[in-house]
Amino acid sequence: MNRPTGTDLVRDHTVYACVMGSRAFGLATDGSDTDRRGVFLAPTALFWRFEKPPTHVDGPAREQFSWELERFCELALRANPNVLECLHSPLVEEVTDTGRELLALREAFLSRQVHTTFAGYALGQHKKLETDVRRYGTPRWKHAMHLLRLLTSCRDLLRTGTLTLDVGEQRGPLLAVKRGEVSWQDVESRMDRLAREVDEAAGRTPLPAEPDRRRVEDFLFRVRRASALAQESQSAPS
């Protein structure tokens, strides 16, 4: 079996691809990029070599990034915000039968761990914004907008057990932040309020304490086995 490049894996073995960023969040404007994210399933036979297939591939298109299925599942089980949001994009561009199985597992990845990961990421971004204000007198308003969006999304996820990406009626107020039409004091006050609401929601969330690792592992085993059997069938003499 010839060793495929990362580009080959994305081109020939993608099981799920979607659009993320502002377009998925309902925050796109005329100048917005199109951020594409995907998941590819490396053929099982590649893992039997010393040099393993890549866990992720940057490209080949501009603003495109893909994960190998196992790595994607590992990150989702750890409640990685970017990965979990990919599973809930309203803008799906490609999906195979394996991709549909992956999407059917969305709830299996969700757990109370999102409180730690989402809030921790938000705290780190907030500190960066504060550094910008100290150095330059103003934050990066686009980053401030997305931090407000993330906190709102986390709060609602903890309250309802459902992750929703589109900001809906908050589009106008959030874009006003992006344009710098809201004072940093007001934006920071809103961030602090949302952070408190996130903590309060975590105390009574319907989400389970842990993700369903066994269900995800069974899925990975089945798709790896199917890939190996398919390769064996193709290699068998006719």
Main features:
238 residues; alpha+beta; Beta Polymerase, domain 2; 5-stranded mixed sheet; 11 helices; 5 strands; globular
Please describe what this structure looks like.
With 238 residues, the protein is of the alpha+beta class. The chain has two domains: 6-110 and 213-235, Beta Polymerase, domain 2; 113-202. The chain contains eleven helices and five strands; from the N terminus they run αβαβββααβααααααα. The protein has helices at 6-13, 22-25, 69-77, 81-86, 97-104, 106-109, 113-136, 141-160, 171-178, 184-202, 213-235; strands at residues 14-20, 35-40, 56-58, 64-68, 92-95. It has a five-stranded mixed beta sheet with strand order 3-4-2-1-5. A hairpin with a 5-residue loop joins β3 and β4 (64-68). The chain is globular. The two termini are 18 Å apart.
How would you concisely characterize the structure shown here?
With 238 residues, the protein is of the alpha+beta class. Helix content is 56%, strand content 11%.
Ordered list of secondary-structure elements with their pairings:
Elements: H1 6-13, E1 14-20, H2 22-25, E2 35-40, E3 56-58, E4 64-68, H3 69-77, H4 81-86, E5 92-95, H5 97-104, H6 106-109, H7 113-136, H8 141-160, H9 171-178, H10 184-202, H11 213-235
Parallel strand pairs: 2-4
Antiparallel strand pairs: 1-2, 1-5, 3-4
| CATH fold annotation of the largest domain | Beta Polymerase, domain 2
Quickly count the domains.
2
Beta-strand portion reads 5-15%
Please tell me the CATH architecture of the largest domain by its name. Answer: 2-Layer Sandwich
- Termini distance? 18 Å
Q: Helix share of residues?
A: 55-70%
Question: Rounded to an integer, what's the Rg over CA atoms?
Answer: 20 Å
Average pLDDT score? 94
CATH top level of the largest domain?
Alpha Beta
Number of distinct helices: 11
Unreliable parts? none
The order of strands across the largest sheet is 3-4-2-1-5
How many β-strands, per DSSP?
A: 5
- Structural class category: alpha+beta
Largest sheet: 5 strands, mixed
Cα shape: globular
- How would you spell out the order of helices and strands? HEHEEEHHEHHHHHHH
